[in-house]
Amino acid sequence: MKIEFHKHFKKRYKKIPSKISSQFNERLFLFERELFHPLLNNHPLGGDRKGQWSINVTSDWRAIYVFKDEDTVVFIDIDTHSNLYK
User: Is-above-0.85 flag for pTM?
Assistant: First the structure.
């Protein structure tokens, strides 16, 4: 699985607390090895985010991605649950 990062994701990632970025890096490592590992709670989104998927970074932080093609995902956003799903 190839992983890319959208410029919006990169911009947000620079601003998140270091504890959260470290946790994201751990989850990304897990994501690369087992896309649907239970810790990730990987699931498709609905509504205005239809076509996007979410993984848990912490109990409150989420990372959002889309499938570019069957072998590539692009992470597009990272933030708290309440900020992402307003």
Answer: yes
